[in-house]
Structures are given as C-alpha cells and as structure tokens.
From TrEMBL:
One of its GO terms (molecular function) is acyltransferase activity, transferring groups other than amino-acyl groups. Residues 213-290 form the GCN5-related N-acetyltransferase Rv2170-like domain. Coiled coil: none annotated. Gene3D superfamilies: 3.40.630.30. It comes from the Eukaryota. This is GCN5-related N-acetyltransferase Rv2170-like domain-containing protein. It holds the Pfam family FR47. It comes from Orchesella cincta (Springtail).
C-alpha cells in the first residue's frame, strides 16, 4: 500500500518548478519547500518535515504534507494537492497514518473540500475538530519588490530593520501561538523579519540613533516556517500612525527579495487586518479553514 514518504532535497528541487506553475494557489507550500531547499535540510529530526504521497513520484497527482514539531503542545500540519476533489480513499488512509491522533494538531490553511475529509477522520479517531475561517491573501512578488520603504514622515523618529534574536521573547509574548521564545528566536535567526524601532536623540549632539533593543521595538512581523508572514503587532501607544503598514511592507518586500511569495492568513472577523493588507496590495486567493484537532479525553 502506498504511503507518505520523506522527500529528499533532490526531489523537493524537482517539485519546485511544478509548484511555480501552479502559483499563486501553491504559494504557501512553495515557500515551505524553498526554505527547506535553502537550508538543505529535510529530516524527521528537524522542526519541519516534508512528506510526499508515494514519494511524489507522480507530479501530476502531487500530494504533499509538511509536519511541524513544536516545543509547545501544538503540532502543525500544512498540506497541498493539485486537486482536493481528486484525493482518493487510499490517499486519505495514508494521510491518517502519517499523524499521531493521540496528540492535538493545528491544520493550517485547509481548503473546504479537504476540511470535510479531516472532520471525518477526527470522528473516526474519537476526537473533535473545529474550524476557523480565514482569508488566504497573497502579494505578487513583482508588487512586493516595488514597495518603497523610505517613509520620510518617520525618518527622524523611527527606522525599520530586521529583528534580532534579542527581540524574540518580546515578539513571542504577543503571538497567539507563542510559548517561551525559543522557537521565535530560531525563526528570527533563520528567516525573514521586520521591526520598527524608535530612534533616540542625543541631547549633546542632536543626532538620532536606535539600539535595536526591546525597549525601542514598537512594531514587528516575522515570516514563519508555515510559509506565511505572521505575528504582526504594534504597541498600543504607537498605533494609528501607519507603523503596522510600514512593518508589513518591509516584511513583504524582504520576503520577496529572499525568494518567498508574501502570503498571510486573515481571520474572517478581523476586518481591520484585512483592510491593512489590502492597502499594501494583497489580494484574496481563496478562503481556507484553520482546523484545531483535540484528541479524545482532552479539553
């Protein structure tokens, strides 16, 4: 019986042009694979492990699943198929066997057709699963690369730059999936990030500078391993000044420069965030479900 197999870097490299031909719908998985190829790592010992149904030997019926191990209690899964309606019973059985259903999972950006399959599997395993409808948004790379980060209104008061590992705990403490900062430190170290820092004026010289210290960090965003820009946050006393937009623009442009498709997930009720990303130029790809599986016996 066919099953999901760990994909080699060589196989992932062969898959990339196939996913590129399916853009933008394949953008999230393409970002994940690009990150793996850049790092030359895809193993079951790592934080990110990419599997392909039947070893992804048939690129016309591609079914890829990425499992993310976390230091907290949530495991994440992202999957991609060319056609969710073409998923067979054999494929679903292999997908089910790839997971340990005694653990809680977050299934990210799941299309409606596959959401139904997940709900059936959850019932079979005796657990429960809930949905959170989100808008899957993307910014064309050519548009991201044209973003102008020179904000003259802010030049004396703020500056935008990449985050440092020192900022990880502060960023993590305001992230809904955060827990301890260790994971966020690794994200900042190895991926794309952007932060807006307050500049300080030297009373003697009148010159301004920023230390990149947490006390100067007022807005930030990171490109997480799930293939999306995430954790956008602006300190309450610095909101409504355009800093969140500047942060998003910087993160989007730097992600594109690094070879990633700028993508983000906006929860259905979050009208303010949807308005912000559309202002930057993001477009709706489709609506997807973030699904939360809880094993039997757990709350």
């Amino acid at each position: 019986m066919k099953k999901f197999e760990l994909l080699t870097i060589e196989t992932l490299s062969k898959i990339r042009p196939v996913l590129e031909s399916k853009l933008p719908i394949s953008g999230m998985m393409l970002n994940i694979i690009n990150a793996a190829v850049k790092s030359s790592k895809n193993s079951e010992e790592g934080l990110r492990t990419i599997y392909g149904y039947d070893g992804a030997v048939n690129l016309d019926t591609l079914f890829i699943v990425t499992l993310f191990k976390r230091t907290n209690d949530k495991q994440f899964t992202v999957m991609y198929t060319h056609d969710d309606d073409a998923v067979t019973t054999e494929m679903l059985t292999a997908f089910s066997e790839l997971h340990d259903w005694s653990k809680p999972y977050v299934f990210g950006a799941i299309p409606e057709a596959f959401s139904v399959h997940l709900e059936k599997i959850a019932i079979e395993k005796g657990g429960s699963i809930s949905r959170n409808l989100c808008a899957d948004m993307y910014l064309p790379m050519e548009d991201a690369l044209k973003l102008d980060l020179n904000k003259m209104d802010f030049k004396d008061e703020f500056e935008v730059d990449k985050l440092t590992e020192e900022n990880a705990l502060k960023v993590d403490s305001h992230w809904k999936y955060g827990k301890g900062g260790e994971f966020m430190a690794e994200v900042i170290k190895s991926s794309v990030s952007a932060g807006v820092f307050k500049r300080k004026t030297d009373p003697n010289t009148g010159e301004t500078s920023s230390s990149r210290a947490n006390e100067d960090l007022v807005s930030w965003i990171v490109f997480i391993e799930l293939g999306t820009l995430n954790a956008l946050y602006t300190s309450e006393d610095h909101r409504r000044r355009g800093l969140a937009q500047w942060t998003l623009e910087a993160g989007s442009k730097w992600a594109a420069e690094a070879g990633f498709i700028p993508m983000c997930e906006i929860e259905e009720y979050n009208v303010q965030s949807r308005s912000l990303v559309e202002k930057v130029g993001y477009k709706l790809l489709h609506n997807v479900n973030w699904m939360y599986y809880v094993p039997s016996g757990e709350n």
